[in-house]
Specification:
Length: 176
């Protein structure tokens, strides 16, 4: 029997999966990686299918290998996804877990629900406004528009003494 027929039978036996974990931040339930593996591994083994999930060359790879091939050739079915460039080990670990779960779910065609993907993705926060300083002036002089300056910096009233200092900084910046 081919690996695809074995996977078809395994998928029928696995059926619908029960969500076993809660995400308190998003107030949602989801199927954890451990819950997913627990739900599928016994069925895969019954059909002589080996599940491996190596990380190689910046990719999470899910492989299901037919260990009982009649043809003598090893049949392998894979699903993979490139890892994001994350330097924080904890965030990288979260991305790996997330990608392992979803490559396995997609490979088996199981029902998937987005849950904790937010921890694996970079949140885009609104920039914190800073007080306009020499750096802000350089931004304005070199490439910034008034609108960009207003989005990034808090403008405040400037005293005569501060105007003199700003004009000096502005002259220095223009000279560079």
């Amino acid at each position: 029997m081919s690996v695809h027929k074995k996977l078809f039978k395994a998928k029928q036996e696995i059926g619908k999966l029960t969500k076993d974990s809660k995400n308190p931040f998003f107030k949602s339930n989801y199927l954890s990686l451990n819950g997913l593996i627990e739900a599928v591994e016994e069925v895969l083994v019954k059909h002589y299918l080996l599940l491996l999930q190596p990380i190689a060359e910046g990719m999470v790879i899910t492989k299901i290998i037919d260990t009982d091939c009649e043809s003598g050739e090893v049949e392998v079915v894979t699903s993979s996804i490139a890892l994001p460039n994350i330097q924080d080990p904890q965030k990288l670990g979260s991305a790996i877990t997330y990608y392992r779960r979803y490559t396995l779910q997609s490979l088996l065609g199981l029902q998937a629900e987005d849950d904790d993907g937010n921890s694996a993705t970079k949140h885009v926060n609104k920039p914190i406004k800073q007080e306009l300083d020499a750096k802000g002036l350089a931004f304005l002089i070199n490439r910034g528009t008034i609108k960009q300056i207003e989005e990034c910096f808090t403008l405040r009233e400037v005293s005569d003494i501060q105007k003199t200092e700003l004009n000096k900084k502005l002259a220095e910046l223009k000279a560079k």
